Amino acid sequence: MGLKIIEARHINIDNKIENEYFENIVDTSSVWIESRTGIKSRFFTDKRGYDMAIETVKLFKNSLRNLDLIIVASFTTRMRAPSVAASINEFIGGDKNILCFDLNMACSGFMGAVILAEKYLEIGGKALIIATEKISDFLNFKDRSSCVLFGDGAAGVLVEKNNKLWEHIVGTFPGIEALNVNENSLIEMDGKKVYRFASVNVTIAIEDLLKKCRIMPQEIDYYLLHQANIRIINQVLEKLKIKSNKTMTNIDRYGNTSAASIPILISENFHKFNEKDKIVIAGFGAGLSIAAVLMEW
Questions:
Q1: How far is CA 168 from CA 18, 43, 116, 213, 214, in A?
Q2: What is the 3-class SS of 122-152, one letter each residue?
Q3: CA geometry: angle at 271 spanning 265 and 275, to 5°?
Q4: Which residues does the annotation mark as catalytic?
Q5: How far is CA 48 from the centre of its chain?
Q6: Would you give the DSSP letter of residue 214?
Q7: Which of 126, 197, 242, 254 is the one with CA 20 to 30 A from 62?
Q8: Are strands 126-133 and 69-73 parallel, antiparallel or unpaired?
Q9: How far apart are CA 252 and CA 289, in angstroms?
């Protein structure tokens, strides 16, 4: 079983924040940020996560009919109840029989939602998956190691259950203190621990996926990785002996948008994917967690 990504959309945010912005706030430099992370800019918005989600939904126009499932992935939405997903269903005039819920897996959230959708849907069933993150609300602008990393963003995909190649892998590892946000507090992150976790365990997860499907790394057309740090991405590709032309990145422009990073990447590059392409998509982050799939386009 598998999923077909029918459509992918992302919103544009006008307020672009260049690295130089942080030079006046903390002891850092634009050169240091880019060399350590690959980030040149990111976007901050005054809009709520809910509003960004609704803006994303509007981009699908008349495509959102006969849905069976709506999932919103976010760790920054301030809406406690009802779920943002339920609000989206009401906004689009959806059927009362649609299952709607929000999911918080931080940076792994979009992929967690995709995996759940594939498990829930029956052949031909459709789901709308939205990721919306207003991380600027939770940044500690006194912590130079974390405040430069993140940006705001929202994107979504419309998917349909099919019979194509599909395999997934998930994991939740010790290390909840490595990246956390408690109520009424700001992001706390042990950057070195998160880096070590991702560079080692994401590689292992992808290797396990490939082994399950008896596919060699070179047979994959594209590797789409969560946009956390360009050095993590490059290290994973290097360990897998994969050339850089088999991946796509936008971290230089968006920074780390958590759950929104992968759907933004898919939306921007949607025109490049072809029928029968084999694609590995991997999310990773707080938890410490990994959620990845190997799919046929």
A1: 36, 31, 10, 10, 14
A2: CCCCEEEEEEEECHHHHCCCCCCCCCCCECC
A3: 105
A4: 107, 226, 256
A5: 18
A6: T
A7: 254
A8: parallel
A9: 23
